[in-house]
């Protein structure tokens, strides 16, 4: 038998990774402590110890809670991947003949993809044979994909789910659409924005489905359909960098803006008429009911902080 080379020494262990992930999701040491079934001082000590061993600050303390630094975000991304791989390895060893469960999933809004991995960590504990594939080709028409049997699960924001037709749907949470612009933008001095403000500026959005564009226009302008100046960009970073350069106003979900706002140069505005809340739902085919129910539970357990549940 060949000698096995010793593994490389690391400064962090699995417990450290779980603490960092819990803090990134919960936003406060108190909420992370509840998730981890630890005391708040224990979580604080664990974070301080991890930062000392790495020689890097992982979170900034702000009035709104903990915000991951660049180093912290890098660790969160890597920790999610490592824990998923470790979980897969454990399940292969413990249950090598576990039946495979296939789920074809799409998110109508691309912002969900940065949140989804944390839910999958939870899901794999109850579905070791999970075979998940992202069917991004159905982003523009998720409900039609479900009805055609080409999808199993969809996270939807604006598309309507017809009753019956072999589909189930449940509410998840509601996020808020906000308007992000450079601090030097002419509208940055306004306390809130009006419909007239939006008519007169360039709006920066993602590659949104027609149903989401229709939802936005209806919520903001009612039956009116004004000619708006729109620039569609494929990446969140691109949208916010263009906004930071003063070339437009980003129309984006508040839940993904925090790390970018921490870099400075941007301000957030809301509508004078009130919050623009967008409901999220999960829809699935009844044939995958058990797996979908487990995924729903995992998603509800990892709802990003600050979002209205249900």
TrEMBL record:
<feature type="domain" description="HTH lysR-type">
    <location>
        <begin position="12"/>
        <end position="69"/>
    </location>
</feature>
<comment type="similarity">
    <text>Belongs to the LysR transcriptional regulatory family.</text>
</comment>
<dbReference type="InterPro" id="IPR000847">
    <property type="entry name" value="LysR_HTH_N"/>
</dbReference>
<dbReference type="Pfam" id="PF00126">
    <property type="entry name" value="HTH_1"/>
</dbReference>
<protein>
    <submittedName>
        <fullName>LysR family transcriptional regulator</fullName>
    </submittedName>
</protein>
<keyword id="KW-0805">Transcription regulation</keyword>
<dbReference type="GO" id="GO:0003700">
    <property type="term" value="F:DNA-binding transcription factor activity"/>
</dbReference>
<dbReference type="GO" id="GO:0000976">
    <property type="term" value="F:transcription cis-regulatory region binding"/>
</dbReference>
<keyword id="KW-0804">Transcription</keyword>
<dbReference type="InterPro" id="IPR036388">
    <property type="entry name" value="WH-like_DNA-bd_sf"/>
</dbReference>
<dbReference type="InterPro" id="IPR036390">
    <property type="entry name" value="WH_DNA-bd_sf"/>
</dbReference>
<dbReference type="InterPro" id="IPR005119">
    <property type="entry name" value="LysR_subst-bd"/>
</dbReference>
<keyword id="KW-0238">DNA-binding</keyword>
<dbReference type="Pfam" id="PF03466">
    <property type="entry name" value="LysR_substrate"/>
</dbReference>
